[in-house]
Amino acid sequence: MSLANGRQYLAIPGPSVMPDRVLQAMHRAAPNIYTGQLVDMTASLIPDLKAVARTRHHVAVYIANGHGAWEAALSNTCSRGDRILVLSTGRFALGWAEMATMMGIDVQLVDYGNRSDIDMDQVTQALAADTDHRIKAVLCVQVDTATSVRNDIPALRATMDAAGHPALLMVDCIACLGCDRFEMDDWGVDLMVACSQKGLMTPPGMGFVFFNDKADRARDTANCISGYWDWRPRMDPKAFSNYFCGTAPTHHLYGLRVALDMIVHEEGIEAVWARHAKLARAVHAALETWAQDGPMSLNITDPEKRSHAVTSVRIGAPQGTMLRTWLTEKAGVTLGIGLGMGTPTDPMADGFFRIGHMGHVNAHMVLGTLGAIEAGMTALDIPHAKGGLNAAARVVSEA
Ligand SMILES: *Cc1c(COP(=O)(O)O)cnc(C)c1O
Description:
Blueprint: E1 9-11, H1 20-26, H2 37-53, E2 58-63, H3 66-77, E3 83-88, H4 92-102, E4 106-111, H5 120-129, E5 135-141, H6 153-162, E6 168-172, E7 191-195, E8 206-211, H7 213-219, H8 240-243, H9 250-267, H10 269-290, E9 297-298, E10 310-314, H11 319-331, E11 333-335, E12 352-356, H12 363-379, H13 388-397
Parallel strand pairs: 1-11, 3-4, 3-5, 5-6, 6-7
Antiparallel strand pairs: 2-8, 7-8, 9-10, 10-12
The structure holds pyridoxal-5'-phosphate.
Pyridoxal-5'-phosphate binds near residues 14, 66, 172 and 204.
């Protein structure tokens, strides 16, 4: 018997749940793209995007997913042959590095594996060895969506400052903008990339590159620049005819307007971060309890280093795939697969699941997902300690 009929819940780490209000805002006839409401409304998005990123500087908006935002960031700041230092803590900084290599950029990689955050000592060593300051930029993610680790960005800034190194600090916040606290200006981040379909609760299709004046000076000499990715025409939305290098993403813009209303003007970004922190603690409490017996473990052991947007769990193969399949077919909730945590022939991919708890997520969605996981483990005879759901409910009750 299946109990899946009812509202389906895609609890993966992006695309995330879209509020009905966001969807309704997009349900409209094609607007005039030359003048009028769309033009003014687009300009109104810019201060709110900056409020979410906590920056006074610039943002360029692209019709693109996160990969497009990665390429935009590189093409505006780098030239072929430039060296960049990429600090990899899972899958996503590696993806950004692969894109840089394809563009002719010289990638120096420090790989911290799949279970840890950035070790600052190795950054200090890499920067100290770069005596002639060839490294143009240091790249990392704030949260790796595969491993669910959160890197300490202020500590990375302090490490670069202590080394006296002038490289740009470029951070991928695609997984966690609007979920985990991020303070672009206060933390001294020069460039940050994000996109629409995770914490920003809008369909995939818009990429954002936030950058300061130091990053913009790199644009003066960057020879990787190309017509579409150039951020200069995207610095002033009042020059609307060139702003999107072609037709505007009309309906996405209306959806994003409502999402930013909800985040910035209704709930408030500090409260949004606090909600994500509390719900993440509920998820972690359940998992830690179940993990006291049986094959389950949280991929990141130190609670301080876990993201508030996504949680990666090891459960062993084939239990991971069995549990995910059971949840979709019997309970109507779909969890994320293990990503880049193995190869097709390596059972790691089958031994993993990830819970997305980013964006438009509340207590009953999280508790419902956790309850369904507990039911699934019971149905499939996956050993686990009792009381996980109680532990999560206790965290929620203390809100
Ligand atoms: C989702 C994600 C990406 C890729 O975004 P796409 O929109 O799928 O291209 C990049 N980095 C991180 C950290 C992500 O979570």
